[in-house]
Amino acid sequence: MAKFRGSKGNLTIGGNSVANLSSWEFEIERPHIDGTDMGDNGVEGTLDIPRGRGRARVKLDKTDTAQAAMLDQLVANTDPTPLAAVFLIATGKSINCNVLATRGSIVANIGQYITADIDLVSDGAITMPWA
Amino acid sequence: MAKYRGSRGSLSQGGVIVGSAFTKGTRAQGQTSHTFDGNGATLNGVVRPGDRFTVAGDAQQYTVVTGGVIGAGVANEVVVTFTPAIVPGGGWADNAAVTFVSNSMSQIRAFEVELERPYIEGTVMGDNGQTGTLDIPRARGRITALLDYADLKQKALIDQVKSGTDEVALALTLVISSGKHIWLDAFCPRARVNAQIGQLIPVEFDFQSEGGLSTSFNWN
Question: Which of B219, B117, B220, B111 lies closest to B172, judged by CA?
């Protein structure tokens, strides 16, 4: 079975590759709806619609189009347009969805590059092509 | 793509000017606004209310009432309103040097700022995935410095915390690199001082944004 190195990964936002990307993470969740009845001999239920949340960690550079798209969404007060996101594991293998940027944490410390952690939530369907 | 070392950063309680500013055209006594430019050279940064400056040939120090991002309208220019009105009888000459008082806060060790737009879920029956929108933006952060109450910029933050009066938001400019700033108005609700044997005494200031953030990134 294949294994995939993080260093080969990528993230695109709005069709543009995120520059200075240190890491990404994405959590997919389908909340459990409990349907257990009296007399059942174990918990039973079903799953609700999927939702995802992700995080991109970058070395901050707002000159980058993809970083700027996420940061601009965070500081605006306009109704946001979801951004197309592709969390790339390897060629042909990714997690795809639209996202909204909900939080950006920018940190400057002596001895380090200035970093930004940007939190994302999914908007609409999540797909996982795996060629 | 560029990367920015934390050690090159800085923080100002007020605006930041990158380059040399000059008066654009003459301006008569009694006026309270004028345009500053780079006199043919690059000028950028942010001019904030409360910034102080002098103009060559005029001994009066002026305080900015309104300013803005330099170059937001015309490249390398900013229109500034100020108080008091221009004092000298002959007004200001064209291309007179404008010197802004530095707003840099001393002994900064680190800063962080968190931008947030709370998520409002709008998922309805029939959707095939979660949907929603984002609420108004807000920011909070922390500044870490070596304590020095003699530094007027540190003093302004500490005084806001220990005062019992209604406060006016302070202008903060987080400098990533020359010409690259994150600026906002903020309140300082908390300052934490920690003294330990064997260490210099640090102070941590928490800040909370006040008002809009739509132009907070100045990235030249």
Answer: B111
Q: Alpha-carbon distance B209 to B203, whole Å?
A: 20
| Yes or no, beta carbons of A74 and B116 under 8 Å apart | yes
pLDDT at A48: 92
Per DSSP, what are the bridge partners of residue A118? Answer: A56, A104
Model confidence pLDDT, tens digit, residues B195-208: 889 999 999 999 99
For residue B129, give the nearest of A19, A49, A106 by CB distance.
A49
B144: its two tokens: 């870490």
> Of all helices (H) and strands (E), which one includes residue B161?
helix B152-162
Q: Does A128 touch chain B (CB under 8 A)?
A: no
Rounded CA separation B17/B103 (Å): 10
Residues in chain A within 8 Å Cβ distance of B186? none
Residues 6 or more apart in contact with residue B211 via CB below 8 angstroms: B169, B184, B185
How far B147 CA lies from chain A's nearest CA (Å)?
17
Nearest to A52 by CA among A36, A85, A28, A21: A28
Residue A63 contacts B, CB cutoff 8 Å: yes
Q: How many CB atoms lie within 10 A of CB A12?
A: 18
Choose among A49, A76, A113: nearest Cβ to B137.
Answer: A76
- Pair A29, A50: CB distance under 8 Å: yes
Test B114 with A105 for CB contact under 8 angstroms: yes
Q: What is the pLDDT along chain A (131 residues), one digit of tens a residue?
A: 888 888 889 999 999 999 999 999 999 999 999 999 999 999 999 999 999 999 999 999 999 999 999 999 999 999 999 999 999 999 999 999 999 999 999 999 999 999 999 999 999 999 999 98
The overall pTM is greater than 0.80: yes
- To the nearest whole Å, the CA of A129 is away from the closest chain B CA by 17
Report whether B144 contacts B157 (CB < 8 A).
Answer: no
